[in-house]
Each structure stands twice: as C-alpha cells, then as structure tokens.
Amino acid sequence: MHHDGQVHSYKEFLVDPSEDPVFRGMKKPKTVSAVTQALAGQVYEHAKEGRLVLTLGGDHSIAIGTIAGVAKAVRERTGKEVGVVWGEWFPFFFIPFSFLKRDKGAHTLRGLDSKLDIENGGKRKRETA
C-alpha cells in the first residue's frame, strides 16, 4: 500500500469568483478545470506504477480527474481503454415515502423493479393475463 502522506485541498487553484463566472450552467469552470487537470496528473503518476488509486472528494467533479488519470495510465500500460460504470447514490436519511420523493434514483429503481425481471438478466417482465 502506498500513500503520498498528503491531503490535497487544491486551494492554490482557486480562481477569483469575479474572474470565474458561470458558463453554460457550469459553476466555476476555470477552477474546476484547473483542479481536474492537477488531479488527473496526480492520479496518473500513481496509476502508471500499477497502484490502485483511491480518491475521496466532496462531490462528483472529482471523478473527471480520477478517470482521466487512470485512463491514460491504463492505455499506456496495457494498450486498452477503460470502461466506467457510474452509480451516484447518496445515503439520504428520510422516511421511505420522503426518500422516494427526493431521490430520483430510488424512484427510478422502484419503477424499474415492477417492469424488469432482475433475476432473469434484467429482461422486461411479461404481462400475465
């Protein structure tokens, strides 16, 4: 197991908000781009050595740099591309009805459960008369 002994906050990449306006709905695009590039480089340095890389962050934007760094290292080491399975689930603590109203993923799963036969490879359930 390897650890670089640091917690990276990336404060040095923060752009003044007046110089980093919302662009096409994206908040702080310059800051996010700078942090993403730095993170991708750090992840790449570890992944190219064949190390398992674990990144922990505050929101989904950490995935951009993580995936970019790992993908580059895998391409160089193996000549293959990587695949990503994206699951974004958060532990909301509400009563079930409230949970289903607030969390679109849970609502979607509840709806799919009635239409798909999970035990049969996710095929659509047949209507019975």
Describe the structure.
This protein has 129 residues and is mostly helical. It has 2 domains: 11-78, no CATH class; 89-129, no CATH class. It contains 4 helices and 2 strands. A two-stranded antiparallel ribbon has the order 1-2. Strand 1 and strand 2 (123-124) form a beta hairpin. The radius of gyration is 20 Å and the shape is globular.
Provide tags for this entry.
2 domains, 2 strands, globular, mainly alpha, two-stranded antiparallel sheet, 4 helices, 129 residues
Question: Structural class of the secondary elements?
Answer: mainly alpha
Shape: globular
Distance between the termini: 58 Å
Reported for the largest beta sheet, the result is: 2 strands, antiparallel
Domain tally: 2
Q: If you average the pLDDT, what whole number results?
A: 75
| Order of adjacent strands in the largest pleated sheet | 1-2
Q: How many helices does DSSP assign?
A: 4
Share of residues in strands: under 5%
Helix content: 40-55%
Total number of strands: 2
Which H/E pattern describes the elements?
Answer: HHHHEE
The radius of gyration is 20 Å
Low-confidence stretches: 94-123
SSE inventory with pairings:
Elements: H1 29-47, H2 62-78, H3 96-102, H4 104-115, E1 116-117, E2 123-124
Antiparallel strand pairs: 1-2
Helix pairs in contact: 1-2, 3-4
Give a nutshell description of this structure.
This protein is mainly alpha-helical.
